[in-house]
UniProtKB/TrEMBL annotation:
Annotated GO CC locations: plasma membrane
Classification via InterPro entries: Spore_Ger, UPF0353/GerABKA_families
Protein's membrane topology: Multi-pass membrane protein
Keywords: Membrane, Transmembrane, Transmembrane helix
Species: Alteribacter keqinensis
Biological classification of the source: Bacteria, Bacillati, Bacillota, Bacilli, Bacillales
Transmembrane intervals: 282-304, 354-372, 378-397, 409-433
Coiled-coil segments: none
Family of the protein in this entry: Belongs to the GerABKA family.
Location within or outside the cell: Cell membrane; Membrane
Superkingdom of origin: Bacteria
Protein's name according to its UniProt entry: Spore germination protein
GO annotation terms (biological process): spore germination
Ranges of biased composition (kind: Basic and acidic residues): 480-494
Region (Disordered) location: 469-494
Length: 494
């Protein structure tokens, strides 16, 4: 069916100048087709349209039209979303997104736009960043429609809502805001929508751009929104009352509001027994604390508090450092920078080469540094364990934050010892207390304390005990299911 826009201020009579300007590009094509001895002009970008679809379905059916009128042409074409318009802005937008413009001599007031976008997209693959042994094996791709379909397949309900937005004055990137009507808090939806609409930037290439622009505090090293490549995770957080944002051209979605603890919860925690998942979450939190403070405590103790070291261990430390010409802070910074260099080199090189560099480089450089007397073997073990512990974070962005925090604590330990470390912890806690995610407390349920939300934070209780949605989301419907019915088990003869 032909769709006509309401606004027709910019008439098609201004079209020749637009087509002349677009024609300066080598991939802009114009053709003339004969229908009943009348000329029909076609204009399109051959790099944006599906040429095989044009030859197979578009041109043969176009030539079968009974007359060169737009009405008969529309009836002959087997395509949806065909649009008749005289708005110059719409014509420009559609041409630049893979539409074919049809202009006839008999219709000078409007033209026809036929969608023939190129559908060459990569296939849906397994998640690479958030890979899990158990659970679904689908990840988002760069096509917005496909990503929305993946989520709709998991939430086939009429309450599913999508708001289309556009950002980027040059890229005109399509953005989809997703939520469940009646469950998501309207304030969260309106806040996210307003922040996206307020973005004033020329190009948006990925959801990471948008993520940084709509956060509550852009100066904080801590991410306040979670980005994920898993459709199942997005569907799960939508059912909790959160909102999600998809960006065309990006294989990751943005979800919020979120909490600090949520960054250490992998989605495959829900595919294992709750006992195992709870223990693994605690191990992750311990690993993060070890990664941040281990090297700093080593420097503080050896520099200012050697009396705290047990006598047997002190002898081992003295023996390992007797040939080291540098103070502990120098060798600690040297090893930390070496680890970061190896990590960055491994990430930028091809996969197989990167793995070889990470393993061989770490062994060779570490062994050579100890034998050359540049660092002690004990500190090498501590730094290696701290680097290994930082990889336990399931969300990539929080892992980068953990890597960054190690260096301030190192220098505070060198300046004031353990007192400096505790001063740094104080500043860190104050900073976290002041952070919010879409206006919601970042440290919830720890502060403000909400005991009901502890059932799925540091530990994960059984599903039968998670009958209510998180209070922080302020959902329209708090109950997820009837807790009494969930606990009741029927016998086979009932």
């Amino acid at each position: 069916m032909v769709q006509k826009p309401e606004d027709q201020n910019n008439k098609v009579t201004d079209l020749p100048s637009l087509l002349s300007e677009l024609g300066e590009s080598a991939d802009f094509t114009s053709e003339v087709i004969q229908i009943n001895n009348s000329k029909v002009h076609l204009y399109y970008f051959k790099t944006l349209v599906d040429l095989s679809l044009m030859k197979k379905d578009f041109l043969p059916n176009l030539k079968k039209a009974e007359s060169p009128s737009l009405y008969d042409i529309n009836l002959s074409l087997p395509f949806d979303q065909i649009q008749a318009t005289s708005d110059l802005e719409i014509i420009e937008t559609k041409l630049l997104t893979g539409f074919v413009l049809i202009l006839t001599q008999s219709s000078l007031q409007e033209c026809l736009l036929v969608p023939l976008e190129n559908g060459n997209l990569r296939d849906i693959t397994v998640p690479e960043v958030e890979f899990s042994v158990l659970g679904p094996k689908q990840a988002f791709i760069e096509d917005l429609k496909t990503n929305i379909q993946l989520i709709r397949n998991r939430l086939p309900i009429r309450q599913f809502r999508m708001i289309e937005l556009e950002v980027g004055t040059l890229t005109r990137t399509k953005v989809a805001l997703l939520y469940l009507d009646g469950i998501a808090d309207e304030e969260n939806v309106n806040t996210m929508r307003q922040r996206i609409e307020d973005v004033d930037f020329d190009h948006i290439d990925d959801s990471s751009y948008l993520n940084q622009m709509i956060e509550d505090s852009t100066l904080s090293p801590f991410p306040q929104l979670i980005d994920t490549e898993r459709p199942d995770r997005v569907a799960a957080v939508l059912s909790e009352g959160k909102v999600a944002v998809l960006v065309h051209g990006s294989p990751t979605a943005i979800t919020g509001p979120t909490t600090f603890i949520e960054f250490f919860s992998a989605f495959d925690d829900y595919f294992s027994r709750w006992h195992v998942s709870s223990i693994i979450r605690i191990i992750r939190l311990f690993a993060v604390a070890f990664s941040i403070f281990a090297t700093a405590i080593y420097v503080a103790v050896l520099t200012y508090h050697s009396q705290l070291i047990p006598r047997d261990l002190l002898a081992t430390l003295i023996q390992s450092r007797e040939a080291i010409p540098f103070p502990p802070i120098i060798e600690a910074v040297f090893l930390e920078l070496t680890i970061e260099l190896l990590r960055e080199a491994g990430a930028r090189l091809p996969t197989k080469v990167g793995q070889t560099i990470g393993i061989v480089g770490g062994i060779v450089i570490g062994t050579a540094a100890v034998e050359a007397g540049l660092t002690s073997n004990i500190l090498l073990i501590i730094v290696a364990l701290a680097a290994l512990a930082s990889f336990t974070t399931p969300i990539y962005r929080i892992g980068n934050t953990i890597r960054l925090l190690r260096f301030p604590f190192l220098f505070l330990a060198q300046l004031w010892g353990l007192i400096g470390v505790f001063i740094g912890i104080g500043f860190l806690i104050v900073h976290l207390l002041g952070l919010t995610s879409l206006g919601r407390p970042y440290l919830e349920p720890i502060f403000p304390p909400r005991l009901a939300d502890f059932k799925d934070s540091v530990i994960r209780l059984p599903f039968s005990l998670q009958s209510e949605r998180p209070a922080q989301m302020r959902p329209g419907k708090t109950k997820r299911f009837n807790e009494k019915n969930a606990k009741r088990k029927h016998d086979i003869d009932e």
